[in-house]
Write a structure and sequence with these properties.
305 residues
């Protein structure tokens, strides 16, 4: 464990986790996330990004891609209620540097103003818009963290079950795959969880679903079908409450014949990759993810960072 991680664990557990658990509503949580993202990135990395419109869905690109170039389509996390392309711009830029692929960050709609299935519907619209522009689905890499990882996997399940062309591969960081909240790790890891306020999960689910079925595979891809899926990489911390969302998701994918690489890391925060500017463990995890992407879809040489 690096000294940076030791320091960050104390800060996240005693400051960030408590602060997140006290946010009174989604609007306050979004402002809180925006401020945290600015501090984490030490500025505004999105300033150099290119804005786009994908069938009515706003998006930011690290740089506009060439028409025939492979790309990363990345869905940000935030529990379906907060986050946006700006909060994840630094992560997108890092992925682009390490892979040589330009990254697209869609600004999908958030709950409670736009409850389920709004985010899933926006993901489908973005996917179709990219294909309509001529992007080859076999040269698109799907990715996401937390709720965004759930969106990426839900989109994959939809493509598989409807017989549509699949992406080259999928990578996810601590994906939120089961809104029934049936994973044993939610209670088993309640004491070791560093970032997420466990006691707010049911409230979050209510804001997102607003009465919808939590086992619907469009929001809980754990219950989806993945026959014909491309290779999938999942990274998760063994100490986090969503650990079993990843373990069971890997089992589900493998049961349908998919090739899955499940990387379980040590006592790290939820989506520790987000803190790549501070943690060597985050940079190592992202380098592993970049190597996986390059192995599935060779791209331009990346630069060390």
């Amino acid at each position: 464990m690096s000294w940076q991680l030791k320091a960050m664990r104390v800060f996240l557990r005693h400051a960030v986790r408590r602060s997140l658990g006290r946010q009174p509503d989604s609007a306050a949580a979004r402002r809180w996330f925006e401020r945290g993202a600015w501090l984490n990135a030490r500025g505004r990395p999105w300033a150099g990004f290119a804005a786009d419109d994908l069938d009515g869905i706003g998006a930011l690109w690290t740089q506009p891609p060439a028409p025939d170039a492979p790309i990363i389509l990345y869905f940000h996390g935030g529990g379906y209620v907060m986050g946006n392309p700006r909060t994840h711009a630094a992560l997108g830029a890092f992925l682009t540097r390490k892979t040589g692929l330009q990254t697209c960050l869609p600004d999908y709609r958030l709950a409670p103003e736009h409850p389920f299935p709004a985010a899933f519907e926006d993901a489908i619209r973005v996917w179709r818009a990219l294909l309509a522009r001529g992007h080859d689905p076999a040269r698109i890499v799907l990715g996401g963290d937390s709720a965004g990882g759930g969106i990426a996997l839900a989109l994959l399940a939809h493509l598989c079950t409807t017989g549509q062309p699949r992406p080259a591969c999928v990578f996810t960081f601590s994906p939120f795959t089961d809104l029934t909240l049936s994973g044993v790790s939610i209670t088993e890891n309640a004491r070791t969880e560093i970032l997420l306020p466990t006691q707010r999960l049911k409230q979050l689910r209510a804001r997102v679903l607003q009465g919808a079925d939590p086992a619907d595979p469009r929001i809980s891809p754990l219950f989806g079908s993945f026959t014909g899926a491309p290779p999938v990489l999942i990274q998760v911390a063994r100490s986090e409450i969503l650990r079993d969302d990843s373990r069971r998701m890997a089992d589900r994918l493998r049961a349908d014949g998919a090739e899955v690489s499940l990387q379980e890391w040590g006592n790290l925060p939820h989506v520790w990759q987000y803190f790549h500017g501070w943690l060597p463990e985050a940079r190592k995890a992202l380098s592993d993810a970049a190597a996986f992407i390059r192995s599935q879809l060779p791209a331009s040489p990346s630069r060390d960072s």
